[in-house]
Specification:
Elements: E1 3-6, E2 11-14, H1 21-28, E3 34-35, E4 43-44, E5 46-51, H2 61-66, E6 73-75, E7 85-88, H3 135-138, H4 155-170
Parallel strand pairs: 1-7
Antiparallel strand pairs: 1-2, 3-4, 5-6, 5-7
């Protein structure tokens, strides 16, 4: 059975393969539709799904053409779960007058061994710690840094250009 992690709500659930994201979310009390009219299922069902290839159903023609879904962006009412994935929902759905949506406590890596840790020392991406990415993670470190050779200024630069032109003509 595939595991689905609703990232913004910190909820993880096992579901049977082939179920829609919107059905699973409604069972958990998670709103995934930004309604245009109250009580009517017309609205924006946009969610972002992160998973391996084949973890969700392929995009439908409606998603590709009408909603322009590409990459992680999908429609919750048209996407079926086929494998393990993470679902990012929209922020601020629902009325401000109702009770807040249920949110599980944030996983703490010091108490929960399965919680993901942020490892700034081995990330190849840029962080505040390493703005250009961690040096050990970016490349293999086998290539030497390029040497900086300043250009000659004034008459010496013109003489070098003439010498290079003469060499090119002689070849």
């Amino acid at each position: 059975m595939p595991k689905v992690l609703f990232v913004n709500e910190h909820r993880e659930v096992e579901v049977t393969a082939g179920r829609k994201i919107s059905d699973v979310a409604s069972e958990l009390g998670i709103a995934v539709c930004r309604q245009h009219f109250i009580g009517v299922p017309f609205g924006d069902w946009t969610v972002w799904v992160d998973g391996s290839a084949g973890s969700v159903s392929p995009t439908t023609w409606f998603e590709r053409i009408y909603k322009r879904c590409k990459g992680m962006r999908r429609m919750a009412n048209r996407t079926r779960i086929l494998g393990d994935c993470k679902v990012f929902t929209q922020q601020g759905l629902g009325s401000r007058a109702r009770a807040p949506r249920p949110i599980a406590p944030v996983p703490v890596p010091s108490t929960d061994a399965t919680a993901e840790r942020f490892d700034h020392e081995h990330l190849a991406s840029a962080t505040a710690w390493n703005p250009h990415g961690h040096p050990k993670a970016v490349g293999q470190g086998l290539r030497e840094a390029p040497k900086y050779v300043p250009k000659a200024k004034g008459k010496a630069a013109k003489v070098e250009e003439v010498d290079e032109a003469d060499e090119a003509e002689s070849e």
